[in-house]
Amino acid sequence: MRIYILRRLVQAVLVLWAAYTLSFILLSALPGDSVNNRIQNPEAQITPEAGRLMLEFYGLDRPVWEQYLHALWALLHGDLGFSLTSGRPVTHAVAEALPSTLTLTGLGLVFGLVFAAVVAVAANYAPWAWLRNAFDSAPALFASVPTFVVGVLVLQYLSFRWHLIPSVDNGTVLALIAPAATLGLIVAAPMAQVFATSVRTTRQRPFVHVVAARGASEGYIFRKDVLRNSSLPVLTLLGLAFGELIAGAVVTESVYARQGIGQLTVGAVDTQDLPVVQGVVLLSTVAYVLVNLAVDLAYPFIDPRVLVDGRTHRVTRSRSTRRKQVTVSVPVVAAVPRRLPAEVAMP
């Protein structure tokens, strides 16, 4: 387990370095930047001496490789540079926009999990076949709809027609529900599809039939056996879902006129503020890597029998049964029948 954690940490550092390097190369290859554009603008009336001092302050007068080494060394000390448009430190700009986006994405993830659970359960336990088929087809429908279309529809009906929520961000909880629900609908589609399939597969396993034959109710079987054995594939998707939340936040904050990382990114791209764009890319990469690392480390806590061997990527039993190895890959977990309590067991 310790080898696996160490390996995942090294991979996370390499991913962060690769993302930062790739973003620096791509942004440096773009023509122009806000400082040079301002210097070359005749209406700005910047003298050559003032232009030279501006380029020297931001390090734009150096070769690209020297800019990269200087930026990488500054990054190791927590310095992301200065904004080319406002002159403020990038860390301050990101820190001001981050809380609003974290609140939005966190609530959007909660909505997404609730939507996915409702659709998956209804697709398997609804009393009528046509209703089960309808819920089973719903994830594919929502997955094909772009984020901005969902946002516009939610805003049109909940705000302009039904007047249930404010149309712009006014700092209230009601103003947060619509954008969070928009993000939740987008990330719920793949999770609902995977969860519904996993629940359906788990219900067909022999140990479920054994528990049902002993007199346990459907609700008991779902809570104690089906839910736990069906949750690992959904847990795997949480990392990808968080990446979708970050990308969807840019569009959602623009549609609902919310201040956050999305609006900061749009403004930085529009003004070619390259340090801010690179800071947002790095922040998104850090969040994505941390969420995926947490998901990988959470597997043993979902089912204590599962331990991950970092050298062979195999799932093994706990120490008491370490000799018996199950050669299935994560996140498929070998299901073991539970012992029923006395009140539901057959005599």
- Stretches where pLDDT is under 50 for at least 5 consecutive residues are 308-347
Tally of alpha and pi helices = 13
Q: What is the C-alpha radius of gyration, as a whole number of Å?
A: 25 Å
Percentage of β-strand residues: under 5%
The 3D shape can be described as elongated
Tell me the name of the CATH class of the largest domain: Mainly Alpha
Placed side by side, the strands forming the largest sheet appear as 1-2-3
- Summarize the biggest pleated sheet: 3 strands, antiparallel
The CATH topology of the largest domain, please? MetI-like fold
Distance between the termini: 42 Å
Write the CATH architecture name of the largest domain.
Orthogonal Bundle
Structural class: mainly alpha
Counting DSSP E segments of at least 2 residues, the number of strands comes to 3
The total domain count is 2
Mean pLDDT: 79
**SSE order in H/E notation?**
HHHHHHHHHHHHHEEE
GO cellular component, one term: plasma membrane
Protein name: Peptide/nickel transport system permease protein
Organism: Nocardia alba
Family: Belongs to the binding-protein-dependent transport system permease family.
